[in-house]
């Protein structure tokens, strides 16, 4: 990458929303969360699914981290970094996420 | 389809039918010479009713189908399309309308939106009216498509701009890409034609030369660089397998991901499979579950037991499954043969001969055959 963003600073106060090209939902037959987009689908692992469940266009990254910490108290310190890394990749590389 | 993450169970032996293609009708206002419908489509006039289609959607969804493509022919010719979209969306599908755009009004697009349609793919044949209308065999098509594409974006749909690329339009690929960017397309599919059915009949008119293909790829890459970071448009260029040395992993494996239901309810593992000498099941007689997991047609080419040499002992068979069964049958007369695209196939010369022929300035020595009723009937009569 030519340009390095400072994800921690940039992201914590920002409010993510799902890019309008994607639809996030639970797939009962596959028992996983997925992102659906024109003629395609990404199956998500458990942590990506858990994070995106809280993306509602209202909650900041910070607020999402708090919710996840309540949900997964065993996540500890790693959880914060994991969520930040996820949003950084989901926004910068995968384009799943936009910020309001 | 992509798969991210590791929390999934081991892939079961037979995949789920994640992709359901509903060919609602074979009727179509266009006559594209590379149409994927069967040559004898004019013999198949039966169409499932609204209720029968919805039952198909319900059953396939229960088996895991998540993507639903409304296709044809021209799906807009079904008056119940709004109703079908609504039912599909309520079942949880991501709904794709794959259309020529012909006859699509603002009001109808708005109604589709209200019914929950997720995305519209508009097909173009070229970047200007003259060639577009010549290739589609319809004099109004280009103007209408432009209008439709603009409305698709105005209504906030994601838009896929699809243009089948072939010898007749490959040299204007720069203009095609510029048009797709100007229309603010989200995805641009520049798919070179695949030689089944109508396209195989017209192969000499359609197959580009290697030099044409290389130039087109380079042009596409140049535009990719140019719009990088500025536009969200993603350019997808699909190389024709005739210029590969290994076959494509067709449909991600036979009966492994993809389920096509034709207008009369015949179930196929891919939209070309009707050309194979195989009796495929029909949703009016069997459940989708039984069709997908237990029918003879859907099990014929699963696994590796059916393979002949050189596929059987090939260390790449798990990657490409021996290539495309339809291509093997159409070119070699035996669907169990290796796809002749493979350089290891004893029939590979069939491909290189076609490539060599495409090096000529005017490779075709007969008229292009448009996909229409008259030609369909003629082809049925002549076998």
From TrEMBL, chain A:
InterPro entries for this protein: PQQD, PqqD_bac, PqqD_sf
Q: What is the lineage of its organism?
A: Bacteria, Pseudomonadati, Pseudomonadota, Gammaproteobacteria, Oceanospirillales
Protein name (Swiss-Prot/TrEMBL): PqqA binding protein
Oligomer status and interactors: Monomer. Interacts with PqqE.
Q: Does the keyword Glycosyltransferase apply?
A: no
The biological pathway it contributes to is: Cofactor biosynthesis; pyrroloquinoline quinone biosynthesis
Q: Report whether Cell cycle shows up as a keyword of the record.
A: no
**Name of encoding gene:** pqqD
Domain of life from the UniProt record:
Bacteria
Keyword vocabulary terms for this entry: PQQ biosynthesis
For molecular function, the Gene Ontology terms on record are:
quinone binding
* Function (record text): Functions as a PqqA binding protein and presents PqqA to PqqE, in the pyrroloquinoline quinone (PQQ) biosynthetic pathway.
* Entry similarity comment: Belongs to the PqqD family.
- Please cite one Gene Ontology biological process associated with this protein: pyrroloquinoline quinone biosynthetic process
UniProtKB/TrEMBL annotation, chain B:
**Keyword set includes 4Fe-4S:** yes
Q: Which cofactor does it need?
A: [4Fe-4S] cluster
Q: Which Gene Ontology MF annotations are present?
A: 4 iron, 4 sulfur cluster binding; cyclase activity; iron ion binding; oxidoreductase activity; S-adenosyl-L-methionine binding
* Keyword Metal-binding applies: yes
Q: Which residues form the signal peptide?
A: none
Q: Give the EC number.
A: 1.21.98.4
Question: Which keywords appear in this protein's UniProt record, sorted alphabetically?
Answer: 4Fe-4S, Iron, Iron-sulfur, Metal-binding, Oxidoreductase, PQQ biosynthesis, S-adenosyl-L-methionine
Reactions catalysed, as given in the entry: [PQQ precursor protein] + S-adenosyl-L-methionine = E-Y cross-linked-[PQQ precursor protein] + 5'-deoxyadenosine + L-methionine + H(+)
Superkingdom of origin organism: Bacteria
Q: Which residues form the Radical SAM core domain?
A: 14-231
Q: Residues that bind [4Fe-4S] cluster, according to the entry? A: 28, 32, 35
The pathway this protein participates in, as annotated, is:
Cofactor biosynthesis; pyrroloquinoline quinone biosynthesis
Cofactor binding notes: Binds 1 [4Fe-4S] cluster. The cluster is coordinated with 3 cysteines and an exchangeable S-adenosyl-L-methionine.
Q: Name one GO biological process term.
A: pyrroloquinoline quinone biosynthetic process
Q: Which family does it belong to?
A: Belongs to the radical SAM superfamily. PqqE family.
What's this chain's function? Answer: Catalyzes the cross-linking of a glutamate residue and a tyrosine residue in the PqqA protein as part of the biosynthesis of pyrroloquinoline quinone (PQQ).
Q: What quaternary arrangement does the UniProt entry report?
A: Interacts with PqqD. The interaction is necessary for activity of PqqE.
Q: Which PANTHER family match?
A: PQQA PEPTIDE CYCLASE, RADICAL SAM DOMAIN PROTEIN
Q: What is the name listed in the Swiss-Prot or TrEMBL entry for this protein?
A: PqqA peptide cyclase
What's the source species' lineage? Bacteria, Pseudomonadati, Pseudomonadota, Gammaproteobacteria, Oceanospirillales
- Tell me the gene name: pqqE
């Amino acid at each position: 990458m030519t340009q390095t963003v400072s994800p921690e600073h940039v992201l914590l106060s920002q409010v993510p929303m799902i890019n309008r090209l994607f639809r996030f939902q639970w797939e009962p037959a596959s028992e996983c969360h997925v992102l659906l987009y024109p003629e395609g689908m990404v199956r998500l692992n458990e942590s990506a699914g858990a994070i995106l469940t809280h993306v509602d266009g209202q909650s900041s990254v910070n607020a999402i981290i708090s919710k996840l910490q309540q949900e997964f108290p065993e996540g500890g310190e790693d959880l914060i970094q994991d969520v930040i890394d996820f949003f950084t990749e989901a926004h910068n590389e995968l384009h799943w996420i936009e910020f309001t | 389809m992509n798969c991210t993450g590791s929390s999934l169970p081991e892939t079961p032996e037979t995949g789920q039918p994640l992709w359901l293609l509903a060919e609602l009708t074979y009727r179509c206002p266009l006559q594209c010479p590379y149409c994927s419908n069967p040559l004898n489509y004019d013999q198949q006039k039966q169409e499932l009713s609204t209720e029968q289609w919805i039952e198909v959607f319900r059953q396939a969804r229960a088996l895991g189908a998540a993507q639903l493509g409304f296709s044809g022919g021209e799906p807009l010719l079904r008056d119940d399309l709004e109703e079908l979209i609504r039912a599909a969306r309520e079942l949880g599908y991501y709904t794709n309308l794959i259309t020529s755009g012909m006859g699509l009004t603002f009001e109808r697009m708005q109604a589709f939106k209200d019914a929950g349609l997720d995305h519209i793919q508009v097909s173009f044949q070229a970047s200007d009216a003259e060639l577009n209308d010549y290739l589609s065999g319809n004099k109004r098509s280009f103007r209408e498509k432009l209008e439709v594409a603009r409305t698709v974006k105005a209504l906030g749909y994601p838009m896929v701009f699809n243009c089948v690329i072939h010898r007749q339009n490959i040299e204007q690929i720069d203009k095609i890409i510029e048009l797709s960017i100007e229309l603010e397309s989200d995805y641009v599919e520049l798919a070179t034609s695949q030689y089944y059915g109508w396209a195989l009949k017209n192969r000499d008119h359609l197959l580009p030369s290697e030099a044409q293909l290389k130039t087109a790829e380079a042009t596409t890459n140049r535009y990719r660089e140019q719009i990088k970071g500025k536009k969200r448009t993603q350019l997808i260029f699909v190389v024709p397998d005739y210029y590969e040395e290994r076959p494509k992993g067709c449909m991600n494996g036979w009966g492994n991901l993809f389920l096509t239901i034709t207008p009369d309810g015949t179930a196929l593992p891919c939209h070309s499979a009707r050309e194979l000498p195989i009796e495929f099941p029909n949703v009016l007689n069997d459940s989708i579950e039984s069709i997908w997991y237990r029918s003879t047609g859907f099990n014929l080419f699963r696994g590796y037991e059916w393979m002949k040499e050189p596929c059987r002992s090939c260390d790449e068979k798990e990657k490409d499954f021996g290539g495309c069964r339809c291509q093997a049958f159409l070119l070699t007369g035996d669907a169990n043969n290796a796809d002749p695209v493979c350089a290891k196939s004893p029939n590979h010369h069939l491909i290189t001969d076609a490539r060599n022929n495409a090096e000529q300035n005017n490779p075709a020595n007969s008229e292009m055959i448009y996909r229409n009723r008259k030609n369909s009937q003629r082809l049925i009569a002549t076998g």
